[in-house]
Write a structure and sequence with these properties.
It is built from 19 helices and 19 strands. Among the domains are: 73-104 and 490-531, no CATH class; 108-239 and 445-486, no CATH class; 288-418, no CATH class. Helices cover 54% and strands 13% of the residues.
C-alpha cells in the first residue's frame, strides 16, 4: 500500500482526483460485471421457465400419451342411498342388476353395568372379586383370528390390563366411565373377524414360572416393542410340553430349521426369549466384572494409604473413651462407627494424595506458579489444604469415588474387566438359557382348566364369549350376566343373478367397487357402466389450458421489446435513483433477457410443430384439428390451441364440439390419435432435455453447464480486474506522494535560500 499524503503541501484534493481517475478506469471493466449480472438474470429466468416446462412434460403431457388415461369408466347406481359404485378401466360396459340381501357387520359385545367406583385402575381380584379356586390363578384367553393373547389375573391385575390385552389381540376395547360398561368389538366386519373370550385356571407353579421367565429377561427394562414381542412369544409357546420346548431349543443350538411353518414360528418365539435372556446375561456379567475390578482398586487404595493411620481396634478404644467422656451417647454402635471412621480416614488420605498429584501436574504444566516466597512443597500443601478443608466428608467421599472411577476407566483396568467378562460370559449364558428353557417348559405345559363363568368373566359384566356366541349372538341381553352380544356377519349380494359373499360392505367385482349402505328389501338396483367421456374431455381441456399458458409465456419472452440502451446500474447510478426507479429499470432488462434466445426459439418451434403434425390410425390420417382442437386464425396468438365448442372459450363456444362427438362415437380412435400426437410432443421435449457433456444437464431445456462455466470465467476476470485497479490506485497515490515530497523539498530549499539572502542583506 502506497503512503498517502493527501495534499499536505500542494493543497490539492488528492483523494478526489484519484477517485475520479479510478472511476474512469472502472468504466473499462464494467462491461464484464454487466455480463455477469445479465447472465445471472438470464439463468434465473430459465430456471423458472424450466420448472414450468418440466411440470407440463411430467404431468399433463405424460398423462395424455398413456392409453390408460382414456380408459376411465363412469358407473352410476339407480339408488345411491343403498349402494355407491366406482368403475375401473376393466369394468364391462352395460347395465347390471344388484340386490343386497345382507350387510356385513362386526362382532359387538356390551357388558353389564359395573359398580360406581369401578375404573380402569380397579384391581380385578380386589375390586371386582375375580377370584379362583385355592392355589390357582385365573387366566383370560382372547382369540381373534390367528391372534391369541392371555392375561393371568394376579393380585396386581387391573381392569386396564384386561382392556390392553384385548387391544393387543387386535380388538376395540373401552370402559365407558359414564355408562359403567365394557364395550368390545372387532375392528373389521365379517365371519373371518370373530373373536372369543374365555377363562380358565392355571396353577401357582405356572404363574411363578412366568414371573421367573420375566426375571430371566429383565422384562421391566425391555422397550414397549420388546415387551410386546415377549408376550407374543410366550403366548405362541403356550400348550407345548417341556419335551417339545427342549426339542425346539436343541434345533436352535444346532442351527436347524423347523419341519413346518408352525414349528418355525415356535422356534422363532423361543429364539426371541433366548435373545432377551442373553442380553440380560451380557449386562449382568459386565456389571459383575466391573464390580470385581472396582473392589480390587478400592482394596489396593486401602492397602496403600492405611500406613500410619489408626487401626479399627485403636478407633474402638477412642470411641469408648469418647462415650466415657460423654462426647458420644451410650447406645453408640462402637463396631459400626469404628469401621466408618477407618474407611473415612483411608478415603481422606487417598483424596489428599490425589489432590497433591493433581496440583503438582498443574505446576509442571505451567497452569500454576509457585510464589517466590514458598517452596514447591509448601505451596502444594497449602493448595491441598484449601480444597480439603472446604470440603465436607460427603464431598470427600465423592472425590474418592471419582478417583476410583478414574482409575477404573484406564486401559489397564478395562482390559481386566474384559478378561473377566470373556472368561465368564459363555458359562453364564448357558446356565441362564438352560434355566429359561426349563421355566418356559413348566409354564407352557400347564393346561388351563374350565372354571365357573359366574366367578370370573361375570365380574366384568361379561359371559364366556364362545364361538357359538360369536356366530349367533345372544338374546337382547344374557339373563345370567347382563351382557349383550351381536354376532359378526358376512355381506350377501346377488349381482346379475350370482350369489356373492364378502367379509366387508365393500365388494370388488367385475371391475367395479361397490360400497353397500343398506339392504334392498325387494328392490333391484341397476348399475350402469359407460365410458367416462366427460373425464377424458376435461383431461384434454386441462392439457390445452396448461400448454397454452406456457406457450404464451414463451412467446412473450422471445418477442419481448428490446431493452437497448438499458445496462445494469452502477453503484453511483443507484445512489442517484429511487427504489421504484431502480426496480423499473431492472425489470425492463429482465423482461427482455430471453429476447430472440436461440434455445427458446428452437424449443418453441419444436413444441408447435410436434402438435401440428398428423398420425395414421387404421389407414386414415388424424390430427388435433380432426377433433376440433385448432389454432386461431389470429397470427398474434402464435400457436395457441382452442377446443371448438368449449363452453368456457367465448370465441369458439359456438363452433361444433367435434371432440365430445368423437369421444362418444369412436373413443378408441380418439385415444389412439391423441396418445400418438402427444407422444410425439413428449419425445421432442425429452430430446430437448437430454444431457450434453459440458453444456446441459438432464431434465434441463437450457445450457445450464455452459452458463455455470461462463459465470466462473466472468468472476475470475472480475477478480483479476480488481487486482489491476488496486495496483493502479496505489500507483496514482505513489505518484502524488512523490510530487508532495518533491514540493516539500523545494519549499525547504526556498526557505533556506530566503534565509541566507536575508542574512547577507543585513
Amino acid at each position: 500500500m502506497a503512503i498517502r499524503l493527501a495534499g499536505l503541501i500542494s493543497g490539492m484534493d488528492t483523494d478526489t482526483i484519484v477517485k475520479q481517475m479510478m472511476d474512469a478506469q472502472r468504466l473499462k471493466y464494467k462491461k464484464t460485471e454487466d455480463k455477469l449480472t445479465l447472465l445471472d438474470w438470464k439463468q434465473d429466468r430459465w430456471k423458472d421457465l424450466n420448472a414450468k416446462l418440466y411440470k407440463l412434460y411430467q404431468e399433463d403431457i405424460s398423462k395424455m400419451r398413456l392409453q390408460t388415461s382414456y380408459l376411465t369408466k363412469k358407473v352410476t347406481s339407480s339408488n345411491e342411498d343403498l349402494v355407491t359404485v366406482v368403475g375401473k378401466t376393466n369394468a364391462p360396459e352395460g347395465s347390471h342388476s344388484l340386490t343386497i340381501d345382507k350387510l356385513a357387520s362386526s362382532q359387538y359385545i356390551t357388558g353389564a353395568v359395573l359398580g360406581d367406583d369401578i375404573n380402569t385402575s380397579s384391581l380385578l381380584k380386589e375390586a371386582l372379586g375375580m377370584t379362583s379356586s385355592d392355589g390357582k390363578d385365573s387366566i383370560i384367553t382372547i382369540t381373534n383370528g390367528d391372534k391369541k393373547k392371555e392375561l393371568i389375573v394376579t393380585d396386581q391385575t387391573t381392569l386396564g390390563d384386561f382392556i390392553n390385552t384385548c387391544k393387543d389381540a387386535g380388538l376395540n376395547a373401552n370402559y365407558d366411565t359414564a355408562q359403567k360398561r365394557l364395550f368390545i368389538s372387532s375392528k373389521n366386519s365379517g365371519l373371518n373377524n370373530q373373536f372369543t373370550i374365555t377363562t380358565g385356571e392355571i396353577s401357582s407353579d405356572a404363574a411363578k414360572s412366568l414371573k421367573d421367565i420375566k426375571n430371566l429377561v429383565d422384562y421391566s427394562k425391555l422397550t414397549g416393542t420388546e415387551q410386546k414381542k415377549f408376550n407374543e412369544a410366550v403366548a405362541l409357546l403356550k400348550g407345548k410340553s417341556s419335551e417339545e420346548i427342549n426339542a425346539l431349543y436343541e434345533k436352535i443350538e444346532n442351527n436347524e430349521k423347523g419341519e413346518n411353518s408352525e414349528e418355525q414360528k415356535a422356534i422363532n418365539a423361543l429364539q426371541s426369549l433366548t435373545s432377551f435372556a442373553n442380553k440380560k446375561v451380557e449386562t449382568d456379567t459386565k456389571t459383575a466384572a466391573t464390580k470385581s475390578v472396582k473392589d480390587d482398586i478400592i482394596k489396593e487404595l486401602y492397602d496403600t494409604h492405611k500406613e500410619g493411620l489408626s487401626t479399627v481396634e485403636e478407633l474402638k478404644e477412642q470411641i469408648q473413651q469418647e462415650i466415657a467422656d460423654g462426647k458420644l451417647p451410650e447406645d453408640t454402635k462402637i463396631d459400626e462407627l469404628a469401621q466408618q471412621r477407618y474407611d473415612e480416614n483411608i478415603k481422606n488420605a487417598a483424596v489428599r494424595a490425589d489432590l497433591t498429584e493433581q496440583i503438582a501436574k498443574k505446576i509442571e504444566s505451567g497452569k500454576l506458579t509457585v510464589p517466590e516466597d514458598k517452596t514447591e512443597e509448601e505451596f502444594i500443601a497449602e493448595e491441598v489444604d484449601k480444597v480439603y478443608d472446604t470440603a465436607t466428608q460427603s464431598d470427600r467421599n465423592k472425590m474418592f469415588d471419582n478417583l476410583v472411577n478414574k482409575t477404573l476407566a484406564s486401559e489397564e483396568y478395562q482390559n481386566q474387566i474384559d478378561a473377566i467378562y470373556e472368561s465368564n460370559i459363555d458359562g453364564n449364558k448357558q446356565v441362564a438359557l438352560e434355566d429359561l428353557v426349563t421355566k418356559v417348559g413348566v409354564y407352557s405345559s400347564t393346561e388351563a382348566d374350565n372354571v365357573n363363568t359366574a366367578n370370573n368373566l361375570a365380574k366384568l359384566g361379561l359371559g364366556e364369549i364362545t364361538k357359538e356366541i360369536a356366530e349367533g349372538g345372544s338374546s337382547p341381553k344374557d339373563s345370567t350376566t347382563g351382557m349383550t352380544a351381536i354376532a359378526a356377519a358376512n355381506a350377501e349380494i346377488t349381482l346379475d343373478g350370482a350369489k356373492l359373499t364378502g367379509s366387508s360392505n365393500e365388494f370388488s367385482v367385475n371391475g367395479m367397487t361397490l360400497t353397500l349402505k343398506g339392504k334392498t328389501e325387494g328392490e333391484t338396483i341397476t348399475l350402469s357402466v359407460t365410458n367416462n367421456t366427460e373425464e377424458i374431455y376435461d383431461m384434454v381441456k386441462e392439457f390445452v389450458k396448461n400448454y397454452n399458458a406456457i406457450l404464451k409465456e414463451m412467446n412473450e419472452l422471445y418477442d419481448a421489446p428490446s431493452s437497448r440502451g438499458y445496462d445494469p446500474l452502477s453503484d453511483d447510478e443507484m445512489e442517484a435513483m429511487t427504489d421504484s426507479q431502480i426496480e423499473k429499470w431492472e425489470t425492463k432488462i429482465k423482461d427482455s433477457i430471453l429476447r430472440r434466445d436461440s434455445t427458446l426459439g428452437s424449443l418453441t418451434s419444436a413444441m408447435r410443430t410436434s402438435l401440428q403434425g398428423s398420425v395414421e390410425i387404421d389407414g386414415k390420417r388424424y390430427s388435433l384439428a380432426t377433433f376440433g382442437i385448432q389454432t386461431s386464425s389470429d397470427y398474434k396468438e402464435k400457436g395457441l390451441l382452442h377446443i371448438f365448442g368449449d363452453k368456457d372459450d367465448s370465441t369458439y363456444s359456438d363452433k361444433e364440439d367435434k371432440l365430445m362427438k368423437a369421444l362418444e362415437e369412436d373413443p378408441d380412435t380418439v385415444m389412439k390419435a391423441l396418445t400418438e400426437i402427444t407422444g410425439n410432443l413428449y419425445k421432442e421435449m425429452s430430446d430437448k432435455m437430454s444431457a450434453i457433456p459440458n453444456f446441459r444437464s438432464s431434465f434441463k431445456f437450457y445450457n445450464d453447464k455452459e452458463m455455470d462455466r461462463l459465470q466462473t470465467d466472468y468472476k475470475k476476470k472480475i477478480a483479476q480486474n480488481e487486482k489491476k485497479l488496486t495496483a493502479l490506485e496505489d500507483k496514482y497515490y505513489r505518484q502524488f506522494s512523490a510530487m508532495e515530497t518533491a514540493m516539500a523539498r523545494l519549499q525547504k530549499q526556498q526557505s533556506a535560500l530566503a534565509g541566507l539572502l536575508g542574512q547577507q542583506q543585513q
